[in-house]
Fold this sequence. Notes:
188 residues; 6 helices; 55% helix; elongated
Amino acid sequence: MSTYLQSSEGKFIPATKRPDGTWRKARRVKDGYVPQEEVPLYESKGKQFVQQRQAGVPPGMCPLVAAESKREREKQERTRAKKQDKQPGVLVVPPSTCPPPKVNQQQAQQEQINSISKALEDTLRLEGSQEADPAKQLKKLRKKIREIEQIESRIQAGEQKKLDKDQLDKVKKKSEILRQIKELEPRS
Length: 188
């Protein structure tokens, strides 16, 4: 029914025969008329956005430009792979196939504790120098020591096997906090 005929009166849809044998009249059509079957379905902005994301194109980017850049990237990756294959004596192993190195868990935790404690010593010194009242500072430091001892007792009792990052940081600070307490005790 999308075929229009032109006459002196304007455009019109010609008469058609119905399945029961009767005829439909010819209908006049105004300029710009689009039959109901040919009207595109409405898509909301959200639906259009989801379709763009599924296509892998960033919002606002032309899909043709995205496809071209993807082809260029794939071409560059192929050339890099060929260059690596041509190098004699070089074995390229993807990282996912390499087995992780076997290290004792206690040694790994101890190394983490040492590295973090060194990094945090400076921040503790800054915290200590900011407070004017040594009694308040001493109270805070003693509270930190109590928290550290609670964490250590849970570890020794076997209640807690893995430590969070914050807990590791606290345990690493223990010697520094004890040193600061010793410095502050003679004053008060």
